[in-house]
Design brief:
This protein is an all-alpha fold and 217 residues long. It has one domain. Helices cover 75% and strands 0% of the residues. The protein is built from 8 helices and no strands. Helix 4 crosses helix 6. The relative contact order is 0.11. The C terminus is likely disordered.
């Protein structure tokens, strides 16, 4: 499917092609298995080798990234932290959600700015922003900043490599593995911190015990 789409893009420069690039960038936030990065990279490649407008490619993937992020944000916003669905209603899960909300309330802008630089996990940054009830205008702003910086980096690297598709994909693949490794280590470290805090909070919670000499209901 991906190969077919890349072949189609290579021979169909025009409004529909730019729309497809934008949709690919957006759907990556809704369907993370979708190879949105590959299609975005190909758009960068086409802007230097197949007559595509660099400006239109840049704007298309920027707009798509922001739109996809806002869809993920809406999913997080739809969850009521005070009355979560049953699959999120466990005590520890609710405490974890509270921790996420607190972290995003303090550092939401930073998380949203780095989201585009973390492959495969980008959508979760926007879900967290939705849980924390960060205003949609701020989410759109910082999401746009992230997308603009990331896409500018892609264009810069693409042009530095002389428009070589093989070298561009090889470098992107290496970066993705390194970034995922760093993200994985960071996630594990944060998980230990959150788990420790949940245990500490659990020990401090009052238990429903009847004190000696206290009247019973």
């Amino acid at each position: 499917m991906t190969d077919f789409l890349l072949e189609w893009l290579a021979s169909h420069e025009g409004p529909l092609a730019y729309l497809v690039l934008g949709l690919a960038a957006a759907l990556e936030y809704v369907l993370p298995p979708l190879p949105g990065d590959t299609i975005t990279l190909f758009g960068v490649f086409l802007s230097g080798s197949a007559g595509y407008s660099p400006v239109l490619v840049y704007l298309a993937i920027d707009a798509g990234s922001v739109a996809g992020g806002l869809l993920a944000y809406a999913a997080g916003r739809a969850i009521d932290p005070d009355a979560p669905p049953r699959w999120l209603a466990g005590r520890r899960t609710r405490m974890a959600l509270t921790e996420v909300r607190l972290r995003f309330a303090r550092h939401g802008a930073m998380y949203l700015v780095i989201n585009r630089f973390v492959p495969a996990l980008r959508a979760f940054f926007f879900v967290g922003a939705g849980l924390a009830r960060i205003p949609v205008s701020r989410v759109a702003l910082w999401g746009a900043v992230s997308a603009s910086l990331w896409n500018a980096l892609l264009f810069g690297v693409g042009w530095a490599l002389g428009g070589s598709w093989q070298r561009l994909t090889a470098l992107a693949s290496t970066y993705a593995w390194v970034a995922l490794g760093v993200a994985g280590v960071t996630f594990v470290a944060l998980a230990f911190v959150v788990r420790a805090r949940l245990r500490e909070a659990g020990k401090r919670e009052p238990r429903d015990e009847v004190l000696p000499g206290a009247p019973e209901d």
